[in-house]
Predict the structure of Outer membrane protein W.
Amino acid sequence: MLFNPLKINGVTSMKMMRILTPVLAPLALAVSTNALAGPSGYIPAPPPPKTQEFIIRIGASYIHPNSEQVSFVDDSLQYFDAFRATIDPDDEWGWNISGVWKPHDHFGFELMYVDGDDHVGGNSKGFVTVAGFDDVALRNLAKFEADMSMAYVNWYPLDPSCMFQPYVGVGINYTDFGGESFRGVARADLNDLGLTSRMSLGNSWGYTWQIGADINFGHDSAWLVNMAAIYVDSETDLGFTVRNNASTNTDFFLESYSGDYLYNPWVFNLSIGYKFDF
C-alpha cells in the first residue's frame, strides 16, 4: 500500500501552502509587472495632472443701445409728465479686453471691460410746462458715453481638444455713464428760449448674458479668434436742469427733471486671444 501524505487530514497540504505562498507571491508580482511594462521593459509614467487654462483677449466692440421714449418728472412732483423725449442714441464702436480662467474643461470664469465711444443722436417731442414754454421741441437731445464692466460664468459644451469652442455665459454688469450733455442742436434751441441746462446720467447694475466662440488657429497654437454677442441689462436715471440766462431781464427760475432710461445695449465683440496654462 502506497503512502499518500496529501490525504492525511489535509495537514501536510496546508503546511505546503504555507511554505509555497512566500515564494509564489513575489513571482506573481514580477509576472504582472512585466505584463504592464512597455516595449522597452519600463512601466509607463502616470498621465500628467490637468492644468488650468487662461485666455487673454483684446478687440473691437460694436454697441447697439436701446431707443426709448422717456417721460420726465418735475422734481417738485408738481408735474408728473412735464417733459417727454425720445432717447435714440446712434450705434457706436468701442474696444474690449477680457480674461478667462478655466479651472475645468467645461467651465470658466470671465471678466470683461467694454469702452464705448460717445453716443449721439436722438429726437425729442414734448413741452416744458413748468417753465411756461408750450410745445417746445428739443431735437437730438442727448450725448453720452458708457463703459461696461462684466463678470461671467461660462459653459463650454465641447471637448477641449476641439479647435472650435462655443460657449454660453451668464453674469452681472456695472455700467458707468460719462460725458453726458445736451446735443448742440438742443442747446441752441434752449438758448433761443433764453435758457441754459445741464444733463446727468446715473450708474447702473444689472444682469448680462452672452453667447460666443473661440476659434483656435491650430491644435498646437496658442492664438485664437473670438466672436461674441452680449446682452446687457442697464437702466439709469437721466436728469437735467433748466434755468433762465442771467443776461435776460426775466425773473430767475431753476427747474429740475428726471426720468428712467433703459440703455439695454447689444454688444458684438470681435477679438484676438492668447491662451496659456501652468
Observations:
- The two ends are 78 Å apart (CA to CA).
